[in-house]
Design goal:
The complex is a heterotrimer of chains A (272), B (386) and C (283).
Chain A (H helix, E strand, L loop, with lengths): L4 H32 L16 H8 L1 H34 L5 H9 L6 H15 L5 H25 L3 H9 L4 H30 L2 H6 L7 H11 L4 H24 L1 H4 L7
Chain B lengths: L23 E12 L2 E12 L3 E5 L6 H9 L6 E6 L2 E2 L10 E4 L11 H11 L4 H14 L15 H13 L5 E5 L7 H18 L2 E6 L2 H7 L2 E6 L2 E6 L1 H6 L4 H6 L4 E10 L2 E6 L2 E5 L12 E6 L4 E3 L8 E10 L4 E6 L8 E5 L4 H4 L5 E6 L5 E3 L9
Parallel strand pairs in B: 3-8, 3-9, 6-7, 7-8
Antiparallel strand pairs in B: 1-2, 1-4, 4-5, 9-10, 11-12, 11-14, 12-13, 14-20, 15-19, 16-17, 16-19, 17-18
Helix pairs in contact in B: 2-3, 2-4, 3-4
Chain C lengths: L6 H26 L1 E3 L6 E4 L2 H5 L3 H34 L3 H17 L1 H12 L4 H9 L12 H25 L3 H9 L4 H12 L1 H16 L3 H7 L6 H11 L3 H25 L10
Antiparallel strand pairs in C: 1-2
Classes of the chains: A mainly alpha (272), B alpha+beta (386), C mainly alpha (283).
């Protein structure tokens, strides 16, 4: 459209504002990256001498390594279980009528609004009451409850966007309900499923507050290990670890956007 | 309602408001617009008179919507100028152009009442409340919608929403009223009555109007003048009658109204062009045939109403076989096969309700050309088949 | 009735999860009503002592602080997120859109500890802000930014931003651009178009965003714990201190229950107060 000077100025001011805010968003990540390369042991800024040694130390540190491993185990199990439960239930939600339908849905989605420390506390006490040790099962169960809403929503949205006539066509060609599911529905849902799983895995791996309550020394996930480290030491190992974290996350998200369309996943695409 | 232009801030006199006034309200001077490699509008020259209803007519992709958006200010010309009331508006943004626009999907603000919708433009211009209320009421009664001020758009029917959209565009006394295919969403009967209403309102107010449509019968019935467009260029500008009876080229002749294309041969005498078709000799305008020599093939463009089944003694222009009938209630469309003169089927109309029995399928009939104003054009260059 | 194959198989696992979740919540509720037995994980008989202890000014203070922090965070996040969401939706260039989206959303996936730690590096006495200001000669000795409400709220805004951007962008994306054109054709300049058309039509997104931001912030733990350092306490920190550090499960449970009730009350209030705004939303 033809623009008046005023509009042009508005546009520039707007661009500046957006850049400034994005700068605010990146600031901690940028600062931490610089700090990670500092050779000295104190957390100082800017670095006087540069070195990779904190990266080496972070990778070698036992607690971080076990934390990483535990995190992978927990995230892998939790998101896979959540995917199974979430997909089957989303299907039932979308297509079927049954008693307590809305109730179960509300309960499962409510873990979004209940604070994580409450959920963590709840599972901790529950485990103690039942007599379960604070092992992986408790942690995984807790994480499933936490990430389920995301999987549920992702799969449900994909289901809604699925053209049911394709399934009807398959049925008209002789496929039983089970085969329709396996040969038509699931393949078409695949992007939503993968997206949901990915989202759940990332959230589970990074989850901290509830994990702090339910994990024990031997099951602690990486964020918990990092928290314990920060409370005692102040060297840049954490910075190095954070940098690796940031790189990995950004890469994953870029890939997710390129292949799955992050915008569609988060429902922010423009209407045509 | 005040006359258009009364709100404008310049000191130009409003002048005569009847259609046909000499002063140009909107002018396009060699306006061009491209999108990437696609040329949407090519070197367009158009002058729209104050108070007239000018229709931009053409198939999709012809550039009519681009032209409209350029006048509205939603697009910027790549070359050329757009003038409103004699002033170049290339640099002026939409909200300062004092236009009124009716969108295809009406675009009524869903979060405002009907009264607030219609009064929106007046609010932007700082019109005080009592005046505003009065003018909104006037506008709504002009479009024959009373008692809906407090409702919301979603509570009205499509036809009602359209009237509100019209009222909203008119209440600000715009310099130009722009209509973007406003009737495409309506059913046939509603469409016909809305067309008449808009025509009456436009006449009554004398507001310069640009109307975009792909429906040629709509264009013929509504317009003071029509600009026929194709592939980014304006092919012809003229009154509906001129467009229909004196199309400037093949495209206009075939786009507007039904037409049969027949192969004939040109006989030229000094200042007359006569086309021979069968035993018939038809007089045609000479200008389109400037480059054709006597004896060459030409294409005759004959409207269905210009053809008749030949009675005895009348010169037979062609002979054909009846291939199909389409009953249309008040008339019957008959389709003839006459491969020597026409590659596709010929259309001829009969008002006799008995036509189907009188000329059943397979009958061989003779046809005579019985109208004036038949056009002839150069044949198209042979298409190379790939 | 339409046939519903595999109904039980599909619903059963979800029902099980729901039950597990409810069991955990019921445990919290149950413990909040039982007495604290020091030195043991078991709880005593039924009592309301835990809840009456909440009325002490010390704890009431924490509740008020939490609400205030959540409110401030939600409002600040809204102000900061709106331009980003707007730019994200209106940008034409696909690369720019992708860049804005990824930058804005990445903090969400980093995890609380990495985020919070990064802010420590920014706010600390040897951190980025102080080093920069000292170098520029603006100050003589480091400013105490850590352990202040300002620091906590800034970090919380940073955390909540991605969520708010997503919700606002979703709402903005669903507004038909023709409305803005219509407003312009009627004489509304860019600011008036925004205020009278775009902003009201995005109201549902704003309400959803603010409500979510409030609920999320209420749940925040690592940020106030590490950046607040004991000076700035939210309910979550208290629950941790009492529950995990002192093993006073009943009181921690009572705190949680009270916190939940408070959140629920405030969210309902917000939703109720937003009712008149509903008329702005598109239908």
């Amino acid at each position: 459209m033809a623009r008046s000077t005023f509009q042009r100025m508005l546009g520039i001011a707007g661009a500046f504002a957006v850049l400034a805010i994005l700068g605010f968003v990146i600031l901690p990540a940028a600062v931490v990256t610089l700090a990670a390369f500092n050779d000295k042991a104190i957390l100082a800024f800017p670095p006087q001498t540069w070195s990779w040694r904190w990266f080496a130390k972070a990778i070698a540190y036992d607690d971080f390594r076990s934390g990483f491993g535990n995190g992978v185990i927990v995230a892998g199990w939790a998101s896979s279980i959540a995917l199974l439960v979430g997909t089957t239930f989303a299907f039932a939600l979308d297509r079927y009528a049954f008693p307590l339908k809305r109730t179960i849905e509300t309960v499962l989605l409510s873990s979004l609004v209940v604070p994580h420390f409450t959920i963590g506390l709840g599972f901790l006490i529950l485990a103690a009451q039942i007599g379960w040790a604070r092992g992986f099962i408790v942690v995984i169960a807790c994480h499933v409850v936490l990430v389920l809403p995301f999987v549920l929503r992702s799969v449900y949205v994909s289901l809604r966007n699925l053209d049911q006539r394709l399934e009807l066509a398959a049925a008209s060609l002789g496929a039983s309900p089970g085969r329709v599911l396996v040969t038509v529905t699931l393949p078409l849902l695949a992007p939503g499923l993968v997206g949901g799983w990915l989202l759940a895995a990332i959230l589970s791996f990074n989850e901290f507050t509830a994990s702090l309550f339910v994990t024990a020394q031997r099951t602690q996930t990486l964020p918990v290990a990092m928290y314990n480290y920060v409370r005692e030491y102040a060297d840049p190992s954490m910075a190095a670890l954070s940098v690796m974290y940031i790189l990995a996350t950004a890469t994953l998200l870029t890939l997710a956007n390129a292949y799955l369309g992050l915008g569609k996943l988060l429902n922010v695409e423009t209407r045509r | 309602m005040s006359r258009p232009g009364a709100e404008n801030r310049s000191n130009e006199p409003t002048g005569a408001t009847a259609a046909g006034s000499d002063q140009a309200a909107v002018r396009l001077l060699r306006a061009s617009k491209r999108f990437g490699k696609v040329v949407a509008l090519d070197d367009a020259m158009l002058s729209i008179r104050r108070g007239e209803l000018m229709t931009l007519l053409g198939p999709s992709g012809c550039g009519k919507t681009t032209l409209l958006n350029l006048v509205a200010g939603f697009l910027v010309v790549d070359a050329g100028e757009i003038e409103i009331d004699g002033k170049c508006v290339n640099e002026i943004p939409t909200y300062k152009r004092e236009i009124g626009m009716m969108f295809q999907n009406y675009a009524l603000f869903p979060h405002m009442s009907i009264a607030d919708n219609v009064g929106y433009g007046l609010r932007m211009r700082g019109i005080p409340k009592p005046d505003l209320k009065r003018r909104v009421a006037e506008a709504l009664s002009l479009v024959r919608l009373i008692g809906v001020e407090d409702r919301r758009p979603f509570q009205l029917s499509g036809g009602q929403q359209q009237r509100v959209a019209l009222a909203r565009a008119l209440v600000v006394s715009p310099k130009v009223l722009l209509l973007d295919e406003p009737f495409s969403a309506l059913d046939r009967n509603l469409r016909a009555s809305m067309q008449m209403e808009i025509k009456e309102i436009q006449r009554q107010l004398g507001v310069t109007t640009i109307f975009v449509t792909h429906d040629q019968s709509e264009a013929l019935s509504l317009s003071d003048r029509i600009a026929v467009m194709f592939e980014g260029r304006i092919r012809q500008v003229g009154s509906p009658d001129e467009i229909y009876r004196r199309p400037a080229d093949r495209f206009v002749a075939s786009f507007v109204g039904d037409v049969n294309v027949l192969r004939g041969r040109l006989h030229r005498t000094d200042n007359q062009a006569i086309v021979a078709l069968g035993a018939a000799r038809i007089s045609v305008p000479t200008e389109p045939l400037a480059r054709v020599r006597s004896g060459d093939r030409v294409d005759l463009f004959v409207r269905p109403e210009q053809m008749r089944f030949a009675n005895s003694g009348e010169p037979i222009a062609l002979e054909g076989t009846v291939a199909a009938h389409i009953y249309q209630g008040g008339y019957v469309n008959l389709y003839l096969e006459a491969p020597e003169v026409c590659t596709s089927r010929l259309l001829i109309r009969s008002l006799e309700p008995d036509a189907i029995n009188r000329w059943p399928t397979g009958t061989r009939v003779g046809v005579t050309i019985a109208g004036a104003d038949v056009m002839a054009f150069e044949p198209e260059p042979a298409i190379q088949s790939v | 009735m339409k046939p519903q194959p595999f109904l039980r198989t599909f619903v059963f696992p979800a029902a099980l999860c729901a039950l597990g979740f409810l069991a955990a919540m019921a445990t919290v509720l149950q413990y909040s009503l039982r007495a604290y037995v020091p030195g043991s994980l078991e709880a005593g008989e039924l009592t309301l002592d835990n809840f009456s202890a909440l009325l002490k000014p010390l704890y009431a203070r924490v509740f008020l602080d939490t609400v205030w922090i959540c409110f401030l965070t939600a409002v600040c996040t809204l102000i900061v997120a709106y331009p980003i969401a707007y730019a994200l939706v209106r940008a034409q260039n696909r690369l720019i859109k992708a860049a804005i989206l990824i930058i804005a959303v990445t903090p969400l996936f980093l995890g609380e500890v990495v985020r919070t730690y990064s802010w420590i590096v920014v706010f600390g006495n040897n951190g980025f802000i102080n080093s920069a200001l000292l170098k520029l000669g603006v100050i003589d000795h480091p400013l105490q930014i850590m352990f202040t409400s300002f620091a906590v709220i800034t970090a919380l805004v940073h955390v909540t931003l991605p969520v708010m951007v997503i919700m606002l962008a979703a709402a903005l994306a669903h507004i038909d651009p023709t409305y803005e054109r219509a407003a312009q054709s009627l004489g509304a300049g860019p600011i008036r178009t925004f205020v009278s058309v775009t902003l009201p039509l995005s109201a549902p997104g704003i309400i959803a965003g603010v409500t979510t931001a409030f609920a999320w912030t209420f749940s925040a733990f690592a940020t106030p714990q590490l950046i607040g350092g004991g000076q700035v306490n939210m309910i979550s920190n208290l629950v941790y201190q009492l529950g995990l550090a002192s093993f006073n499960f009943p009181f921690a449970a009572a705190l949680s229950v009270a916190g939940l009730a408070l959140t629920f009350a405030i969210l309902s209030l917000l939703r109720f107060a937003a009712r008149p705004l509903e008329k702005f939303g598109p239908h």
